[in-house]
Amino acid sequence: MSDNSADIAMPSGPDPTAHWPVDLLVTGAELVATMDDERREIAGGWVAVTDGLVSAVGGPGDPTPQAVKVLRADGCLVTPGLVNTHHHIYQNLTRSYRAANEGSLFTWLTTLYPQWARLDEEAAYVSAWVGLVELALGGCTTTTDHLYVHPAGAGDLVSAEIEAAVELGMRFHPTRGSMSLSQKDGGLPPDSVVQDDDTILADSQRLVQRWHDPSHGAMVRVALAPCSPFSVTPELMVKTAELAERLDVRLHTHLAEDADEDTFAAEKFGCRTVEHFEAVGWMSDRSWVAHCIFPNQAEVTRLGAAGVGAAHCPSSNMMVGGAGALAPVAEMRTAGMKVGLGCDGSASSDAASLWMEARNAMLLGKLRHGPAAMGARTALEIATRGGAGCLGREGEIGELSVGAVGDLVCWPLEGVRFAGAISDPIDAWLRCGPVDARHTVVAGRSVVEDGAPTAFGVDEMLARHRTASERIQAPTGAQPLPLPETSRESVVPTTDSRVVRESAGPCGQVGVREW
Ligand SMILES: [Zn+2]
Known about the structure:
Helices cover 35% and strands 18% of the residues. With 515 residues, it is α/β, with parallel strands linked by helices.
């Protein structure tokens, strides 16, 4: 920890008071961890926000701005808002679903697909509303969502969740997910939740045109996200990459979530899964992938050279990743990959606290490479600047510097859980706890204040969520299909050997219609 407040950047121009009063002043912090380019840590620091952007950062020796609103951060560590780079929010409608909890992820999925086929706009809206509030309580200010289930006739699910984010004031990066391989074509999901390529691509373009905002400080940006290289056709991967290039939006998918993916890719494409990812045109800095647990070192080097991002999902990996599911986080960062954090749905982790994911990332880092390998500062870096890199917003989100967005969290390091932790507030933040946000601020506006959501109607929304959950979880009478031993969210089953045999071909082969 260092107090270098004498070097603090003040508002631009010769007169630091020219922009006073600021809209918001967060002051009295025990420590402000700016995560700016110099990683300044300011004891007794304060942060000012004007027009949704950070307008000044200062220390106790600097003139304090006049402010329209003041938030006290006494006893708090102040950090940039945490960035969630992988999620499936709708899954909170079937959280900890007993009928699936004892099985592998594959069994879990085939048990739940018939329930998810009941998803509609109301369910998408309330699940997003509740899920975004949950994220805000855990210190998240920017989140993605990967909504890849689009039942026939369900309506505009992505717009429904965007409307919840806009209403709450959360910074949102929804991805237009997709699945195009159903059971009849050798895929995993039932016909009712998959779509054809033309429908997927047309809806992707429509959503980008309606919602995507490329401007600095944007609150909504849309990305395109086939569920995985193995739950959609190679043609859709290629066409989606081409569409993303034309619309200038980002690309997201699951990759290397399980060692079995490579077995599957060898049978299907005659190459490894990362090679297939490259062959369909996704090896670029436009892409960020979820998990990336099993690339070999040569693949990590190639992914890093291309600038691909990775959403590290520690809780999910521990829940369902299986033996050896320790993502090579340090190696990916060394290779130049942009590594962020993800809570990965209310499915494989059943919780959505970015604080918990940061702590678990730290613990897994220590487990993989020893106690000195991953400290709280590195975990905080991944949770903030790493996430900004995944989303193509470096310098804009994930740091508290003048001109960056006014997204921050005040973490109370007080009470019995932090007693005695007085030597380093950042280490204490992750080594002690658990802790929720006292204040979560997005674009200068509180979404959590004094530990409670600022949005009205939480109880009413929870009641609507309960109604939707009960409807979706009601018995369907559907029986899960018998499945192979290998079972992953992103792996198409190999139950039909004819399909595998006929589809196998050179790496990157597209135009395979046998699927
Ligand atoms: Zn996922």
